[in-house]
User: What shape does this take?
Amino acid sequence: MYGEDDLSSVPVFAGGFINYGYWRGIPVDRPISEADRVRSQLALYRLVYADLAGRRVLEVGPGTGVGPGWAFAECGPAELHGVDLHPEQVQRCAERNAAAIAAAGGRFTFRQGAADALPFPDAAVDAVVSVEAAQHFDDLAGFAREAHRVLVDGGVLKVATFFVPDAATVGSLPRLLEPFAEGVDREHPLPAFLDDLAAAGFADIAAESIGEHVWPGLDAWVAQLGQPEGTWPRRYLTAWRDGLLDYFVVTASKLTPASAPADGARPRSG
Assistant: This one.
């Protein structure tokens, strides 16, 4: 689904960013234009890339390269490197951003690699980000360890995607949502991922729910595209309202040895 097929051609992902969008400030109680939909996806990228100007950034799961291309041009990272498991996606990213890559002199690249085996040396980047991709990863603990390894001391991790808020409900989503039934998306419990980050050595771990700015807007857009109520694309809103799924921005820091707490950092959410 995310290899040979190009999801950027699917109407729900108008504009090619391939994310559900951050709809804060975008009215959804009236007809939604394609420009509105693109703006929602851009807003999610803007949320993740805030404060990363001048830093060397590694994005894990860069889609077809639309988001990283915008971020490299507009957000001012010193470097931006995308890693994707699928060679087809890497090729799409490279082709879409060919001119910018050629002009960047090695500061803007895409390469194949796994989230739990990143093709970078230790302490190679200042920030690791992932925008609506971690729900596909098989091994979030491995991703946490690799992100920590490739970050410099003082580096930051930012992950935006949907998680299961309570591990006790795991098993519910495949009955509601086709991507979970097919194994495209994983029922990753948020508390387990926060524990993975702490075990990998991260500190200042936090998770902010942004579901109120994701699910109602997505549902309004999908409904406008003609999906009737009760079909699986309309059940994301139901799953969120029932507490089975939510969207989070997770952040963490790799502290310098001198500032690292002796007993580690306790993850928090809110």
Notes: Confidence is low (pLDDT under 50) at residues 262-267. The radius of gyration is 18 Å. The first helix runs from residue 34 to 49. The beta strands are 56-60, 79-84, 108-112, 125-131, 151-163, 203-209, 246-253, 268-269.
